[in-house]
Write the structure tokens for this entry.
Amino acid sequence: MNKNKKPNYKLRRKVAKYVFIMLILLPIIIINRTKIFNFTIYVPNMKYSKVIDSMFKANYNKDEIKNTLDYLKKKKKINDNTSNYILKLNSKGYNKKTIDFLIKNLNKSEMTEFLAKKYNKDYEKYIANKLFDYSKFDRYLAYRKDHKDLSIDDTVWQIELNMDKTYYDDSELIEDPDNILVLANKYYEIPENYVPNDLVEMDDKYANNQYSRMKLRKEAYEQFVKMCDDARKDGVNFYAESAYRSYSYQKSIYNNYVYNNGQAKADKYAAKPGFSEHELGLAIDLANVWTITTKGKEYAWISKNGYKYGYIFRYKEEWENVTGYSAESWHIRYVGSDVAKQIVKKNMSYEEYYIKYIKNKKN
């Protein structure tokens, strides 16, 4: 080893210089690491929405947002309109999720309309709802203004149910009344000529056939028989006092209510023809000599076990504002065991369940 060899001071100075630079840059890199790494990773290869996502996660300031958008325009990933919308929405205070939804779903005129609205934090809650439909935005706002006790989520699904419209007059015609899960109420109308093609006659053991032989759809009847038999093993008896009704029969029932009680009361206690679940062949009014009441053992047994056979109580007191009918402790409806189990577990009206998990296929 050569002991007389001089140290390489030039190399040492160069290393020291780089170390000094790194000591200065390292804190800057650490503080801004999210911005730096997200930007370099996303911009060259990803869609603009991913870049915007990265930008919001990095908490870019106004100038940084503008620089990012200018870069995206240069790369032809967005146009001037998109850039302007993002800047304006961001300046109003809207979050990334809201901006992303509006950019993807609103046309130019809708965006202009939305930008003219004063910022409201509730708007983001509406947009975050899975059922949100921008075309119904003004309906949400107007409905909740008249129903201040409603949550935003309840407002959205009730508008989806058309509850802001005039029942019966603004009804929606049911396209597939054969579907076991169809909803029939004051806003969803059954075609006048509809008759279920799988109706079966009910045995005297399970129905009051004194005046005419009752009918029910085959699947619903089979499960009703099982339910009655199992209930009787537990010492609980009930049978059908009313089941399937034709359009004309429902019309006579409704007109009789109107004649005896007036229009307003009739609409609380009876359905207009074309709007009754009985016309679907899936509903039953129960009795055990007398009408079933909430205090009776029949009601208690069905509340505990009915879902196993696919049956639910349709008109509970706590749902009157949704169903539009006074509570009926004797009226049950067949929806199948899987759905009935979920409805009982969630403790929600069939209207709410239908809108959230059937009509919009969220289940």
